[in-house]
Amino acid sequence: MDHELCPHKGPCLDRAEGEINDAFKTNRVSYMVHSLPDPIFSVLAHPTADLQIFDRDEKNRYRSAMKISDQLYFITLKELDEIHQGMLACIPLPSRVKVGEQNEDRFTEQTIPQVIIQKLARITSGLRAAELLLKSGFLQELAVMQRVLDELTEDVFFLALASNDEAKPNFLQRYLDAFWEEELDRNGKQFRLGKNRYMVPRKKIRAYLANHPIGANTNPSGSITNSQSISKAYSGYLHAASPQIMEMYDASPPRFRTNGMLESQYFQDHEQDIWNNLFRGVGSFLVVVNLMGDEHFKTKTKKLHDIIKPIVT
Fold it and tell me: What are phi and psi of 225, to 5 degrees?
């Protein structure tokens, strides 16, 4: 891997393994998931949602599953924070440099691992933001965040794989140049005024991933189509299209619910989909640590991946 991430030499990430095992052993989570009536796995829902359809035992299992799943989401992100901190300790750290009239933190070497570490930071931050939006019932805004998370995970996969290929994709350097481009010149002027930041078309990144030998896609065109379909579905939320906005409408009395939609018929779809985002987020960490070759990181990340997988498959 170019600009190779070094083996782990940062602060120790070891924690009491019993904390994780006791909190969410795979068989315990699977039992809770599959023993519940529909909705299967109500993570993050408020405590009384839909409980009228359950008998007393089902209500108890429902609340127990909610408690375990909430803990699973929290501990997974905490683990990713620790893995991320260890990765950061393996690369050149930012320096204080002059940007316009102020001193700012910047990665002066501008290596690919330094790009990846920033993208991973946004993934973990975005997953926390998604959780807060879901808990508050802001489903439109959650879908926008999910679109962002999908593209961030695609970026990490692309950068990790492209940096390891002998024959680099011809658009890699243009992607990197756009990523590092500043908003201000050295005199503090907005030098890109009237000029949009160049962005590599998303379809190029998806085509590269779909055709890459790692992942063994047997149907690249189908993979690209699926990615485009997911992106298009989220696009309606991002650009505020009418069909998506009308999910906020309540006819009795006529109004748009602008203070959250916890009682929406669409809530279950969003609360289940957030686990897909968490799973893909962990997957983005996993592809990076696999290319790093660090066994400590690989073991921790693979464990998270295997724990969450039964929930989303």
Answer: -60, -40
Cα(124)–Cα(278) distance, rounded to whole angstroms? 9
**What is the pTM assigned to this prediction?**
0.77
Virtual torsion, Cα 306, 309, 310, 313, nearest 10 deg: -150
Residue 147 near residue 235, CB atoms below 8 Å: yes
- Asked if 184 and 162 count as a contact pair (C-beta separation under 8 A), the reply is no
Tokens at residue 34, please?
């599959």
User: What is the rounded (10 degree) CA torsion for 289, 76, 306, 24?
Assistant: 150
Check if the beta carbon of residue 257 is closer than 8 Å to that of residue 248. yes
Nearest to 65 by CA among 272, 300, 301: 272
DSSP for residue 292: H
Give, in order, the Cα–Cα distances in Å from 16 to each of 52, 78, 162, 208: 39, 13, 36, 40
Instruction: Say what the pLDDT of residue 54 is.
Output: 40
Pinpoint the alpha helices (H) of the chain: 17-24, 26-34, 56-88, 112-136, 139-164, 172-180, 202-211, 220-238, 242-245, 267-292, 295-312
> Looking at residue 173, what is its pLDDT?
95
Task: Considering only CA atoms, give the Rg of the chain.
Answer: 21
User: What pLDDT shows up at residue 30?
Assistant: 36
Which long-range contacts does 99-104 make (Cβ < 8 Å, 24+ apart)? 99/182, 99/184, 100/184, 100/185, 100/186, 100/187, 100/188, 100/189, 101/188
Q: Check residue 234 and give its pLDDT.
A: 86
Series of mean pLDDT values for 10-residue runs along the chain (313 residues): 43 37 40 33 33 45 56 92 94 92 93 97 98 94 95 95 90 95 69 68 92 61 55 86 95 94 89 91 94 87 90 77
